[in-house]
Amino acid sequence: MISLSSNIRFERLSTKIAPTMHGITTLDEVPAKKKHITKTKEIVTTVPKTIVLPTPSTPTRHLFKTPVTLAIGPTNHPFHLHLEALCSISPFFSAAFNPAYSFRESVTSTLSLPECNPTDFEYFAQWLYTRTLTHESLDGPHPAYFKLIKLWKLASFLGITALKNSIVDEIGWRADETNSVPTPDDTRSLWGGEEEMGGLKELVVDLFAWKKTDALVQGHPDSWDERFLRELVGRLKRKGKDAAPWRDNEERCRRYHEHDRLAPMCEGVEVLKEE
Ligand SMILES: [Zn+2]
Questions:
Q1: Cα of 269 from ligand 1 centre, angstroms
Q2: Using CB atoms within 10 A of its CB, is residue 232 exposed (0-12), middle (13-18) or buried (19+)?
Q3: Binning pLDDT at 50, 70 and 90, where does residue 50 land?
Q4: Separation of 143 CA from ligand 1 center, angstroms?
Q5: Who has the most CB within 10 Å: 26, 62, 121, 164?
Q6: Distance 58 CA to ligand 1 centre (A)
Q7: What is the tens place of the pLDDT at every residue in 66-122?
């Protein structure tokens, strides 16, 4: 359940998101002949005016129609993005920009998110348009686990399941590529907060259980989060001789991913029936 923080501010600007902003719907929900987007206010239609959310088969001309500005952080750092792209991956943005959710007259093309960090938001914007996490400050000889964990928290706040899945995939891949694991600080960041970080914690415990980390865990001068160590002991007692789960597409999906309407099941992975 996504709730809109009271810190979100809608600002009146001259560039209103005009007639297309009266409702948000998916392509599936709209009869084929409906006129979704009207260019001028003079065109009167009796159907609800809607934003067409993209699916993989949506023609490019329907994407990136409505520019919006997101003012991020206490300094209102501006990000100029596209409404359709934002709404297609995040119920948070669908709600925030939907006048039906009590902001009927005040929705404009600017949304302020003062509690978000502009750097994290830039990684998100990069992912939004490229579906990769290959930002220049995420690349490098040492994996930026700390930054990716912070990005996961942002993704969680914004309800972006597909980004959370991309982050766990990236962390597993980078851990193998550099033969490294997260630091004691990272374990405290993961286990110390209130956030639900199930899939990501699961992966981190698996990385420590399957990689050769015994000397690292015993000898590191910084302290590990105690709850992390308990989970690691439990995992080591149970893990058996199975292969490292993050290297297997199905196991990775089942153990670390979440899937929902905006983040459909990974290809080739069957949904397990509940016994
Ligand atoms: Zn998956």
A1: 7
A2: buried
A3: low
A4: 22
A5: 164
A6: 22
A7: 889 999 999 999 999 998 889 888 989 888 887 666 444 345 688 999 999 999 999
Q: What are phi and psi of 205, to 5 degrees?
A: -60, -40
Signed CA dihedral, 225, 255, 248, 121: sign only: negative
Q: What is the C-alpha separation between 142 and 183, in angstroms, rounded?
A: 11
Distance, CA 39 to ligand 1 centroid (Å)? 39
Separation between Cα atoms, residue 266 and residue 176, nearest integer Å = 21
Give the separation between CA 199 and CA 252, rounded to whole angstroms: 9
Structure tokens at 176: 């193998």
| 207-242 per-position pLDDT tens digit | 999 999 999 999 999 999 999 999 999 999 988 878
Digit-coded pLDDT (tens) for 188-205: 999 988 878 889 999 999
> Kindly report the CA angle at 128 between 127 and 130, in degrees rounded to 5?
60
Backbone φ and ψ of 26, nearest 5°? -100, 165
Tell me the CA–centroid distance for residue 246 and ligand 1, in Å.
Answer: 11
